[in-house]
Amino acid sequence: MSPERRRALAYGAAAVAAAGAGIWAGVRLLSGGATPAPAHVSPLDATAYPDLAGKPRRIAEWRGKVVAVNFWATWCAPCLEEIPMFMDTRRKHSSKGFEIVGIAIDNVAKVTEFSRKLNISYPILIADGSGLELIRKLGNTSGGLPYTAFLDREGRPVRSKLGAFTRPELDALLLELLP
Length: 179
What we know:
With 179 residues, this protein is of the alpha/beta class. It contains five helices and seven strands.
């Protein structure tokens, strides 16, 4: 085989491998299904964000509950569509030890106004842009929103999802995570 043919085959094989990796990554990123979160200790344990009253809060405050930590922004349409469903789900499952904590990656004035207007019934924390680094540590390497990480009763990440939940997806996941 000539050196030119060998080189062409090598380039072709590299191109096929790169295309396959791109397809695999695209399917994983866009599949929308809840996937297992990394099995390490949650980076949320070391992070405190202010609530709407300005009081620093840590996710560890909700240890003992199954917690959905939902990262969102007022400018993110899919994020806003999830909020009424999350409020309803929290109302239905809070007696089983379920909590939702919203972490807004936005400015405090917009989040406060929006939260009051919609009467959001679960805790809202303000992360500004620093929340993007946190969601990357939680496994959302693209930094996209909405992003929801589920923590078990010991505060360990057990599932995560990039993109908006549908009610059937959320109900199925809670059936698995709540006794």
